[in-house]
Structure formats: C-alpha cells, structure tokens
C-alpha cells in the first residue's frame, strides 16, 4: 500500500507514455540472451505499473459502489486461471514493501496453493509475510474469513470463482447485468421460494447470496455461511476479485450486508452441535471433519493459525487484540467466563460430550 | 497418502517441481534443444503462439520444452509472460492481400486469379505410421520446383465486387483491445474476432463442428484458405510513413455462408478467420464461429456469450484443473445442508465415533494437514 | 377522471424514416395500414379511449387491426410512437414511464395476461413460483404468507392447488392461462389486460376460463381491458366495446348497443359474419 521512492519513479516514467519500466527487457534479443526468464526480468510486484494502476482504479470504483461488479482488464498471471489470479492481481496492485502479507487457502496458511501465492508475493514484491492474522496488513484468502476480528488497518482480498449470484438462476451475464442495473432480483427470490418448497429450508451451502447496502445482490465468494455475517458492518475493507471473470467488487467498512432469507425461514449458519476442535477444544470456530481409517471422525478448527493460538491460550477471544472485546464477528463470540467454565467441565469429565455449540447469534 | 505438510508448503512445491523436471531430464536420450523444437515442431509452435496471443517463435519453443509438450500449458506460459510486457506501439492495419502465400486453396472455384497453390500439406497423403524415418537428408534428390510465394488477390473480393457477399461493418477508428478492456456483451465484432483468434484450437474445432453437425445453420463454402507471411508495418515516428518491421506467419480463411441477411437484397453471409502460425483447422473453425455469431441465433455456436466464455483455453483449463484444489471448507458446508435435510425428512444420519479432545490434544497437525480430499 | 384515459396512441413499425403523412394515408377508409409513400406500417394510430374503475372494456378486431399493439402499449410491454395516457396510479404520461417505474406498475397496478404463455410465465418455474414471483417482486418476504396467498390465488382461479409445486411446463394450456390470471391479480391491480384470453384453448375450457374470470372481475371489481377477435368473448365480458380496423378505432359504444345496432359498415359485416 505504501510505495517506495523507486516504485514511484517507475510509475512516473510510464506515465509519460514513452519510456518503459527501467529494468524490463526491451527487445526480443534481450530476452533471448537470458538463459532463464527469471524474476529479475520482471517489474516490482510482477505487474507493470500501468496494469496496477488500472486494477487500483477498479478497486476504487468498486468501493464507491459497494457490491457492484466492476469489470477490469484482467491479465494472465503466472498462476492458472481459477487459482486466485484475480486475488493476486489485486494484492500485487496494493502491496508495497512496508506491507505484511498473509495468504490463506481454505483456512490454512500452509496449503500448497497458499504457499505458492505467498512465494510469488515474496519474490516479486519483497514483502514481509506472516501467518498471524493480527499482524497482516493485506490478507489474500480463498473461501474463508479469519476467525480473529479484522481491523480498519486491514484489507481482506477474497478470491472469487463465480462473480454473479444470479448465475444460479441465469447463465447469461448480459441478462444479469440488466437485472443488477434495475435491482430486479425476483428470479433469485423465486429460486429461494422453490428451494424452501422442495426442502423445507434454503439449501444454499457456501457462496450464500447477500444484499449489499440494500442495493446490489452480491456473491460473497464460496465462504461458508459461518463467515457471511462478518461482512456486515465490519471495520475492515473486503475486496473480491475474479481473474478469469475479470471483475472486482468490494464491501467497504461499515456497509450493511444481509443474507437473502425469508422472515420465517431465516438464514442459518453451519451447525456443529456438540462438536469441538480436537486440538484446542474450541466450540466457537468453523470446524471441518476428517474420518480416519478406523472410522473415527475428528473435528478441527479450520483457521489453523488461530487454532495454534488457542492451543497456547484456550481462553483467547476472537477480539483479543482489540480494545473492545465485544465486537460482533461471525456466529457469536462466547463470553470468555462462561466459556471457561464449560471448558473446565469438559476437561474434568474427560470424555463427556459438550452439548452446546458456539452461541449462534 | 498424498501431501501432508503443515509448515512445508514451499518444500513440497519445490519437490513436485523437481519431480516434474526429472521426468524430462532423466531419460537416456539427449536433451531436446529449444532450437530443435522451433524448427521441427513448427505446427505446435504456431498453435502455442496463436493461443498464447504472442508472436514469438523462439519463446514459444522454449515454453513447449518447459511444458514437456503440453500445448495448453505452453500457451499459458506465453500469455503470462506477455501480460508483463509494456506495449511499445501499434502496427498499421495489415492488409492480408499483401501476404506472401506459400499455400492457398480455394474450394469455391476450380480456378482463381493467381491459381491454387497446394504447398506443404499432409491433406492428401495416406496416414500411415512411419516406422522408418530416414535420418539422412534426401531433400536434394527431391524435385521441388522453387515456387515463389506470391501476393494474391482474395477470392472473396471478387464476390464482394459482384455484390454477392455482405460487406463487413465499417471499421472503427480504434480497434477494441480485449487484452486491455474486458469483453462485455453484446460484444463488438472486433472483440469477438480477437477472442476467437486466441481461442483454444480443440474448443474452436468442437464448437464449429457443432454448427455443422446440426446445432447451427452455418455450413460454409470456403472462399479460400491460405498460409503465408504477412508483413507487419508500423508508422515511422518521424516521417509518419509505414515501415515494414517484420513479418508473421499466419493462416487466413474466409467463408461464404448461404444465409441471406436481407430479404430485399439477398447476399451471402460470411465468416472470417486469421490466426498465427500454420493452423488451418483453427482458421476455418474461426470463420464458422464468426459467421454463426453474426447470425445471432439460438444455437450454442450462435451465442457470442456462450462461445467466447468457453473458447479460451487458458480460462477453461485453469478452472477445470482448479477443482484439484482443496475444497473442504465448502464441502463441510454442503455436508451440513444434506444432514439437515435428512433430519428434516426424518432420516437418520449415521453417527461416526468421534475423536475426543482430551486424548487428541497432543496430535501435532490441525485438519489442514489433510488436503487431498478432492 | 377515468381510471385510464388514452389519447392519440400511435405505433409505427418499420426501419424506414417516416414520411410524415403515414397516418393520413392509412387507416380504415384507405383499407390499408402500410403507408404507400414510405412503406411504414402503422400498427395503430390516433386511438383515444378511456376505462372507468371496475369497468370491462372490450377491444375487438381482426388480426392486423392493431388491437394487440394497443394492448401491449397499455400494458407497458411495447413502446408507443406517440400518444398520451393518464393512469390513476401514475403521475405524468403513463407511456413515458421509465424501466423501473414500468416494472413497478406492471407488477402492482396493471396485470397482463398474455396470449403466448411464454411471454407471461417462466415455464421452468413451478406454477406456484410464477405467482410467487409477483408477490416477491412486490416485497413480500414472509414465506408462509407467500405460500398462503399463492394457494388462495390457485383456488380463486380454479387451478388444483396440489399442482402448485409442479413445473409450469407440465400444466395444460387452460391451467397455464389460469396461472397467468392468478399472477396478474396477485397484487390487486387496478387494471387487468387480457390479450386473446381463449386462443388455443378447447371450447369447453374457454367457457370455464371466461366464467372464472368474470366471477373474479365482479368480486374484485377490477377494471379490465379484454382484447379478442372473438365476438363471443367480448359479448360475455365487456361492458363497452371498441371496434378496430387497420389500426384505427371505427366504432365505440356499450357492448349491447354495438352488437344489436352496429353503426359502422365494418362492424355490421363483422357481426353478420358471426351470426
């Protein structure tokens, strides 16, 4: 986010429209003389300054119209399309050398794809990286919003596979753009109505459609329903970027974000009745299950970085790093005292099961 | 068991890269050189340049070697590299009539001004697997007439002069550039042609075939198909004259389609194709898709949005292969839905024995360790 | 003021530049609706009519008379070339309503029953879903309320309620017409427009659909414009009737009067040909 002087200077030369970035190869013969098309041949943060500026303009437009999908000229990246190319273009356009960068893929900093994206940012943008959510200034993520509350110093860049929630009901972007322009979402509502008719409740799992600022229907990317409410009235900026689809959209801080639901068929998050993390015993985090060869199912925190902290300190709240520890964030942050008491019971009894899930606010 | 790594993401990636490289290097045979790829796999080099959207035979050959012959991967390497390059200038619009053709066939007419040039092709040979490549160079004994490539008049022009084929819409001052601006629908024809020119050869062939096979109305007669060197000119920065700076090998095709656009002035519809390298299959497919999209009907190949959304190989292969990425967060959410619904229907969910927190506290890895669940 | 007052409603069709004399050179007295000078087709021109609250106005004419163009313009489905319409629920010229106003007006104030089912219903939706769409678009957000209202409307329009969760494409033509009516009246509009309500239905089904609609119309006292080439339909439903030919209104009057004592030569032919 902060440009260093060199960075500025390079930007200035491209502004003139004549010169190109100084250390970029100028002719095919230069390229061919290099044995390895190494990172040395590329601009700071990989993309040329023109492209980065264009992406930033897209981001600004997106912030100005919360939830509206802004087209941008997505570039091919050295990652395959569908593997976070929108996210990485946005991230690289924002990063400066003073940033601290975190990458999460499906809740984990160390999944292979996260490691690969982090490696790209490290080598091309020369940034510090971290796995601690509270230390990061920019976080790129696939399918999760961290368990720890994000602050107004932080930007979360979400990778998006499908930009338009209306694609569930109509494959044509042309038709859907018209619907967004006129806030005509009745087809989506009919889909929800028929969903309830058929199944008794709304059957959408992840990628739950939300209304942003009571204006645009938005696809929040395939985050679980568990994370959806974190978008509402948050302190942090959320950017959504899709490389293949060439769209950027945003939820700025303190924007109303409301999941579509009926008054009498309310939005529900994933249930983990009686389940807790087998490592840190948390009952207020998003868990995923694994069944081993003996048929034993274990649940574990999906946010691996927060789980580590909870192992050290089981009473740590999701807003431990804030002055105000009562910030609403996701499906209920349990009262530490109540939570403590319950945890003790559990540990005393050894194998007794906990019947209460996280407080589902 | 697959990759199980908490803190070793980087190492795992390095190892898999090394394994991939090993596959190429470890054989007994000498390494194929980039130069060999360029000179002996010309068709593949052409295809990669065309799908990669960058005319650079040497870089394409390098990409092919690096990708171990995977055309989609090689095109992708080229495109990703291309996206980091600053743009120096734009060329003067190239006139295909100035192409020096080494091959030119016109199925529409028996004979055409300038004549048919069969050129180098395997079209009429018997496709027999050759068990006896001759490594010595026999070409000196062959009696190949030293045919000079010629610049020829396009057959389609004759038809247009007669008023039998519709004219394309007048060109705009500035061409739309799909690498700089996102394609929105309805897309202008220049945007459609650019996207088709970079389309994946197999996808283009399949969609064009669908139009011929009955899911469309375009069964064209090709005005001509030609392969040759097309001069590339830029405007001289001081004199303003057009100066030839290089030439590119291209395949061009134009077809007439017996569909009449206007009732009061019946004219053939048409389709156009121009692609980098020698790739007649793709150029012909492009003419069919261009014509189909101009018809704007209800069949798949006639729907610009459908065709352009699916024809790009970089997009489609990336998204198809992304399914290999872990999806356990979303899968957990899906599990939650199906269990809830089963409960609502009064069906029982099998409860598996659950691992216990107190006994498992010492297990070192969180769930993120098991990532190959897909 | 009436519920709806239309003045000089006109619609041209054609890619040509109008010559300016298209209206005076076409119409019933010329026996044509294509302008001999410029080739413009005058779908309808200078149509002036009014609809009172609770009244049923019939528009009758042969195909090409301009009656469907008129109905589509009044239902805001087709842009008018010229004309002014005052409508109770709208400030200004109804025909100039912008897209969003149009969507609101169509959803809550003017219900349209289309001749072609595909124009009125989404065949992939369930029948209930089609009716629910009107309610959901009007802001209903309570599922059970929507459900109850849809079921009531099905009963009202005599569609078996146990079919409401089946895809609309599996419905018979008569049922689809009834579902369109249910959707058209879902939000208690001031005006309903029926375009050829019986076309494509068996004779016995026609009669039942018309009886059903007549009952609803009377119970709810909803103003209606019914467009048909079928004098029987007009005779059964309409209080007043407008006769159109070559894009012009040739006669207007109480239905009984028009049927018993037709004044225009064309109306006389029309009625005699039926009798």
Detailed description of the structure:
The complex is a heterotrimer of chains A (361), B (374) and C (275). Chain A is built from ten helices and twelve strands. By secondary structure, chain A is an alpha/beta fold. Chain A is globular. A seven-stranded mixed beta sheet of chain A has the order 1-9-8-5-4-2-3. In chain A, a hairpin with a 4-residue loop joins strand 8 (237-242) and strand 9 (247-251). Mean pLDDT of chain A is 82; it is low at 2-38 and 333-361. Chain B is α+β, with helices and mostly antiparallel strands and 374 residues long. Helix content of chain B is 38%, strand content 14%. Chain B contains 13 helices and five strands. Chain B has helices at residues 9-25, 34-40, 42-52, 57-66, 71-82, 155-161, 189-197, 201-213, 280-295, 304-311, 313-322, 328-344, 357-360; strands at 100-105, 150-151, 221-235, 242-260, 268-276. In chain B, strands 2-1-3-4-5 form a five-stranded antiparallel beta sheet. In chain B, a hairpin with a 6-residue loop joins strand 3 and strand 4. In chain B, helix 3 (42-52) crosses helix 5, helix 7 packs antiparallel against helix 9 (280-295) and helix 8 crosses helix 9. The longest helix of chain B has 17 residues, at 9-25. Chain C has a domain at 121-188. Chain C contains ten helices and nine strands. In chain C, the strands form two sheets. Chain C has a six-stranded mixed beta sheet, sandwiched between helices. Chain C has a three-stranded antiparallel beta sheet with strand order 2-1-4, covered by helices on one side. In chain C, helix 4 packs parallel to helix 6 (173-185). The interface between A and B is large, with 99 and 71 residues.
SSE map:
The complex is a heterotrimer of chains A (361), B (374) and C (275).
Chain A: H1 5-15, H2 28-33, H3 49-64, E1 70-71, H4 85-94, E2 100-105, H5 112-125, E3 128-129, E4 138-142, E5 155-159, H6 173-181, H7 186-199, E6 210-212, E7 216-218, H8 225-228, E8 237-242, E9 247-251, E10 257-259, E11 287-291, E12 297-301, H9 304-312, H10 336-349
Parallel strand pairs in A: 2-3, 2-4, 4-5, 5-8
Antiparallel strand pairs in A: 1-9, 6-7, 6-10, 8-9, 11-12
Helix pairs in contact in A: 3-4
Chain B: H1 9-25, H2 34-40, H3 42-52, H4 57-66, H5 71-82, E1 100-105, E2 150-151, H6 155-161, H7 189-197, H8 201-213, E3 221-235, E4 242-260, E5 268-276, H9 280-295, H10 304-311, H11 313-322, H12 328-344, H13 357-360
Antiparallel strand pairs in B: 1-2, 1-3, 3-4, 4-5
Chain C: E1 4-13, E2 41-51, E3 56-60, H1 67-74, E4 82-87, H2 99-108, E5 110-113, H3 117-120, H4 127-137, H5 143-156, H6 173-185, E6 191-195, H7 203-220, E7 223-228, H8 231-237, E8 240-245, E9 248-254, H9 255-260, H10 265-274
